[in-house]
């Protein structure tokens, strides 16, 4: 999500579990997506097109995957696996706003995200791909009548063929609660703008999309990004957003295994706390054993001020 996810977000008094149909002034049955509803500044970054309620906290979302994009499409023309994360993120935010009446100025706090794709099913190059997401919301909690947290489980379909599955848990914070939580954060001017790794090493279109800077140590990089890159930063202005941490995990795995190509089929990430613009955040990656024949697994940890701020695992074929 575009607000750096936090584990263990405290729920205010009055938060209760809720079942049944979405309620609230914006509890429509269907609608179209806009860039405001998915927290995107550019129309070219918007993935959902429309959504519809199927009842009982179940929805379908129609999305269009682009055939060209500097982040979401790999240099070889295939959808980049990180596109799955952005699809999950945008669809969950869209439904929270449009179906559950969450105001546009509220903040989303992710605890974890994950996806799993069957090998080969992301190979849908050759033009824009229209896909459908089956979304189930569960373990819903409310603060009075307002949505406070939910699990989202998503199946991505190309026709009747399952492309991938995924999901995550997110909490929702009011602007007032968010200000209390964050206090006086550091400004974006302190974001790390160290010289990036060569973009081809992490399978990106150019230096502007690289979020890692080299260090003298093997398997260790400094997090870096330009806050003016709205595709990666979204609305975040007081911390590195979760999307950049997702990118950092994927790029670290590729940099570690370079020159072998790495295309993860499964990914999990857990966010432990906000990643501030200073001091530097260090990204560390190493391979780990896997029981899957021919597969390669990489574990990535982000550290800031000596503490782990996120942990991620990626598994796929290295060739």
Secondary structure layout:
Blueprint: E1 15-17, E2 30-32, E3 48-55, E4 58-65, H1 82-98, E5 107-117, E6 129-143, E7 146-158, E8 161-173, H2 175-182, E9 212-214, E10 220-223, H3 230-233, H4 242-257, E11 262-271, E12 281-288, E13 296-304, E14 307-318
Antiparallel strand pairs: 1-6, 2-3, 3-4, 4-6, 5-8, 5-11, 6-7, 7-8, 9-10, 10-12, 11-14, 12-13, 13-14
Report on the structure:
- The protein has about 325 residues and is mainly beta.
- It folds into 2 domains: about 170 residues, Hotdog Thioesterase (Thiol Ester Dehydrase, Chain A, Roll); about 130 residues, Thiol Ester Dehydrase, Chain A (Roll).
- Helices cover about 15% and strands about 40% of the residues.
- The chain has 4 helices and 14 strands.
- Strands 1, 2, 3, 4, 5, 6, 7, 8, 9, 10, 11, 12, 13 and 14 form a 14-stranded antiparallel beta sheet that branches.
- β9 and β10 form a beta hairpin.
- The longest helix has 17 residues.
- It is globular, with a radius of gyration of 19 Å.
Question: Which labels suit this protein?
Answer:
2 domains, AfsA_hotdog_dom, 14 strands, 319 residues, Thiol Ester Dehydrase, Chain A, AfsA-like, 14% helix
- Reading the helices and strands in chain order gives EEEEHEEEEHEEHHEEEE
Instruction: Outline the low-pLDDT stretches.
Output: 1-26
What is the average of the pLDDT values?
Answer: 86
Question: Total domains, how many?
Answer: 2
As a percent range, the share of strand residues is 35-45%
- CATH C-level category of the largest domain: Alpha Beta
Please tally the β strands and state the result.
Answer: 14
Fraction in helix: 10-25%
Biggest pleated sheet? 14 strands, antiparallel
Distance between the termini: 31 Å
Radius of gyration: 19 Å
């Amino acid at each position: 999500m575009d607000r750096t996810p936090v584990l263990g977000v405290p729920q205010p008094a009055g938060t209760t579990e809720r079942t049944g149909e979405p309620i609230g002034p914006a509890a429509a049955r269907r609608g179209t997506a806009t860039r405001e509803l998915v927290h995107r500044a550019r129309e070219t970054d918007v993935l959902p097109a429309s959504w519809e309620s199927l009842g009982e906290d179940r929805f379908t979302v129609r999305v269009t995957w682009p055939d060209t994009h500097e982040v979401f499409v790999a240099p070889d023309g295939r959808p980049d696996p990180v596109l799955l994360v952005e699809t999950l993120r945008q669809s969950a935010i869209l439904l929270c706003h449009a179906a559950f009446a969450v105001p546009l100025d509220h903040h989303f706090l992710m605890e974890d995200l994950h996806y799993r794709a069957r090998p080969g099913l992301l190979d849908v190059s050759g033009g824009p791909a229209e896909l459908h997401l089956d979304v189930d919301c569960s373990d819903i909690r409310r603060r009075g009548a307002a949505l406070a947290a939910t699990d989202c489980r998503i199946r991505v379909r190309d026709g009747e063929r399952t492309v991938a599955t995924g999901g995550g848990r997110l909490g929702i914070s009011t602007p007032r609660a968010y200000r209390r939580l964050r206090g006086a954060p550091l400004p974006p001017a302190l974001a790390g703008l160290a010289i990036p790794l060569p973009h081809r090493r992490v399978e990106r279109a150019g230096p502007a999309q690289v979020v890692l800077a080299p260090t003298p140590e093997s398997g260790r990089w400094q997090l870096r990004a330009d806050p003016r890159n709205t595709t990666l930063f979204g609305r975040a202005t007081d911390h590195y957003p979760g999307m950049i941490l997702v990118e950092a995990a994927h790029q670290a795995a590729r940099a570690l295994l370079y020159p072998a190509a790495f295309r993860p089929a499964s990914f999990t990430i857990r966010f432990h706390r906000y990643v501030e613009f200073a001091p530097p955040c260090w990204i560390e990656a190493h391979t780990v054993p896997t029981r899957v024949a021919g597969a390669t697994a990489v574990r990535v940890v982000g550290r800031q001020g000596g503490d782990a701020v996120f942990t991620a695992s990626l598994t796929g074929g290295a060739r």
